[in-house]
Amino acid sequence: MTRPPNPTAPSRALHVITWGCQMNVYDSARMGDVLRPLGYQPVDTPDTADMIILNTCHIRDRAAEKVFSELGRLRLIKEARKAEGQQTIIAVAGCVAQAEGQEILTRAPYVDIVLGPQTYHRLPEMVARAARAGNSIIETDFPAEQKFDFLPEAEAPQTPGNYTAFLTIQEGCDKFCSFCVVPYTRGAESSRSVQSVMAEAQRMAKSGVQEISLLGQNVNAYHGEGPDGEVWDLTRLAYALAEIPGLSRIRYTTSHPRDMNDALIAAHRDLPQLMPFLHLPVQSGSDRILRAMNRGHTADEYRELVQRLRAARPDLALSSDFIVGHPGETDEDFEATMQLVRDVGFALAYSFKYSQRPGTPAAGAPLQVPEDVKDARLQALQKLLREQQDAFNASMVGKTVPVLFTSKGRKPGQIAGRSPWLQPVHVIGPDHLIGQELPVRITERLTNSLGGILEEERVYA
């Protein structure tokens, strides 16, 4: 006898606050997918939410204190709704949850659920347990099962205008850089199966997504099981994704220099869907500091890798990460970083002062650099990096580049999109061009974007 379908779960409001990297953005969306069968639907503000998830990041300085500050605000919302007879579940997810664990429940006992990045596939069970037991739940173990094997199919974007999307294919890190908490908060390197990645990418493309950014802590270390039973690397996966109809742009981040192999470099030459923009963190230009960081490469090896990439794809632009003031960094070490920046030239870069992360090798290292020295070095580095970014953007003026238009611009009559090098581009044009990739002649460099005109008048028709 066929059992009748279960009645539709009651509608509940879910608000997710996301901090940190693109992977957290992806994880937040997947948490929404996991909770949807329970009747949770997204809302824009926490004030009316039946469940609030704070998806946290541990990379920035004072990350934990920022979480506790935000939790204080959410506590007031929870108490106000309780006075009106409404329940609010507060959950803390992500890397701070993984790192702080019990400390969150000790300092903020009104939090109902604390869960690490590898356990959000268990959210429905956690919600049920929290409601039934009336006490807090903590799930920060690294489960034996792969969470992606237990997640529901990702919801394809349902609203017009979702022409770009993030897609996590790899998580965790085995590199153990001295300054980094990722191996402790995200666990060992693991990769999704090719079948899982391809199925999600196909759903995205069918919904209108034209550009996919593949995500991973070490995305170019991808080693997923293929449908043929073999282990596929990122290169083979990229070629398969390029066969999906409608998918015209592929990006990937974040890469490690140690995992850039000949095949992947050749793919930048041969695969037109692979965008000519690569985020390749180097962190320092000093071999002595690179050894202290446990990066596993030298400054000259990084330079040589860049030369090979640019030989394969001459229009390739690079982005990178830099840390100044790592323990033991001298003026000579910092100058070596400045010289590497001058030698390589970056279109974009992210630079930070070293900050101690409890449990990492560098946190207890001797010769911590004074804050005023770190400040001065960071300002000097950022000035040079900004000059290079401005010069790269200025070099686009007069060129015609393909722009994927994704939204309206800030000004009336404007539409906005991205160049192959991730630069925001604004033109005057009708809204019906949003969702198309069109040639644009760049006419001006603005502070953080480019301005241009549509190359073909026919697109106005």
UniProtKB/TrEMBL annotation:
A matching Pfam family: TRAM
Binding annotation for [4Fe-4S] cluster 2: C173, C177, C180
Domain of life: Bacteria
GO molecular function per UniProt: 4 iron, 4 sulfur cluster binding; metal ion binding; oxidoreductase activity; tRNA-2-methylthio-N(6)-dimethylallyladenosine(37) synthase activity
Residue ranges annotated for the MTTase N-terminal domain, each copy included: 12-132
All copies of domain TRAM, residue ranges: 394-456
Main location group: cytoplasm
Family matches, as InterPro entries: Elp3/MiaA/NifB-like_rSAM, Methylthiotransferase, Methylthiotransferase_CS, Methylthiotransferase_N, Methylthiotransferase_N_sf, MiaB_methiolase, rSAM, rSAM_horseshoe
The record's free-text note on cofactor binding: Binds 2 [4Fe-4S] clusters. One cluster is coordinated with 3 cysteines and an exchangeable S-adenosyl-L-methionine.
Compartments in which it is found: Cytoplasm
This enzyme's EC code(s): 2.8.4.3
Domain Radical SAM core: 159-391
Annotated binding of [4Fe-4S] cluster 1, by residue: C21, C57, C95
A single GO cellular-component term on record: cytosol
Cofactor (UniProt): [4Fe-4S] cluster
Keyword terms: 4Fe-4S, Cytoplasm, Iron, Iron-sulfur, Metal-binding, Oxidoreductase, S-adenosyl-L-methionine, Transferase, tRNA processing
Catalytic activity, as annotated: N(6)-dimethylallyladenosine(37) in tRNA + (sulfur carrier)-SH + AH2 + 2 S-adenosyl-L-methionine = 2-methylsulfanyl-N(6)-dimethylallyladenosine(37) in tRNA + (sulfur carrier)-H + 5'-deoxyadenosine + L-methionine + A + S-adenosyl-L-homocysteine + 2 H(+)
Family membership noted in the UniProt record: Belongs to the methylthiotransferase family. MiaB subfamily.
Subunit annotation: Monomer.
Function statement: Catalyzes the methylthiolation of N6-(dimethylallyl)adenosine (i(6)A), leading to the formation of 2-methylthio-N6-(dimethylallyl)adenosine (ms(2)i(6)A) at position 37 in tRNAs that read codons beginning with uridine.
Database matches in PANTHER family: CDK5 REGULATORY SUBUNIT-ASSOCIATED PROTEIN 1 (PTHR43020), MITOCHONDRIAL TRNA METHYLTHIOTRANSFERASE CDK5RAP1 (PTHR43020:SF2)
Annotated protein name in UniProt: tRNA-2-methylthio-N(6)-dimethylallyladenosine synthase
Native organism taxonomy: Bacteria, Pseudomonadati, Pseudomonadota, Alphaproteobacteria, Acetobacterales
This protein's encoding gene: miaB
